[in-house]
Amino acid sequence: MFAELPPGAYLGKHRDPYAGSVRYHLGLSTPNDDRCFIEVDRQRHSWRDGEAVIFDETYVHWAENKTEQTRIILFCDIERPMKWRWAQSVNHWVGASLMSAASSPNDENDRTGAINRIFKYVHAARDAGQRLKKKNRTLYYALKYLVIAAIFAAIILFSLL
């Protein structure tokens, strides 16, 4: 896919959970300036037209464009090489099954994955929790630990069935 980073944009520190691929960025239309960069595991890479950067997206990374020009790159995930065939099969299954559940649409024809569909509810619950924490910290922690205990109880109960 193509990825745009407008002037003044900042993509916060994060790491991606899926270790089945490595990330490839190819500069297509970039500021060609050190103020437009991605930092991966404390190593900074500036995008340049026609130059590629490959990195492990499970490491903490973030990006910023402090220039007045939009950065456009080709953005690809490349399957991580696996030593054993069975590991490659597991990687294919995870990529096809679990990661598709987290997909987000790029246009009206794309499907939204199940994880993305429920995220708005999780996000709303988290926001409500943060508001409660500001108002009544004791009640917030009591409810938090009650929910965690209920989740563990459900896991144990379903594993016994």
TrEMBL record:
InterPro entries: Asp/Arg/Pro-Hydrxlase, Asp/Asn_beta-hydroxylase, IPNS-like_sf. GO terms for molecular function: dioxygenase activity. The chain crosses the membrane at residues 139-160. Residues 1-81 form the Aspartyl/asparaginy/proline hydroxylase domain. It holds the Pfam family Asp_Arg_Hydrox. Keywords: Dioxygenase, Membrane, Oxidoreductase, Transmembrane, Transmembrane helix. Belongs to the aspartyl/asparaginyl beta-hydroxylase family. PANTHER family: ASPARTATE BETA-HYDROXYLASE DOMAIN CONTAINING 2, ASPARTATE BETA-HYDROXYLASE DOMAIN-CONTAINING PROTEIN 2. This is Membrane-bound beta-hydroxylase. It comes from Salmonella enterica I.
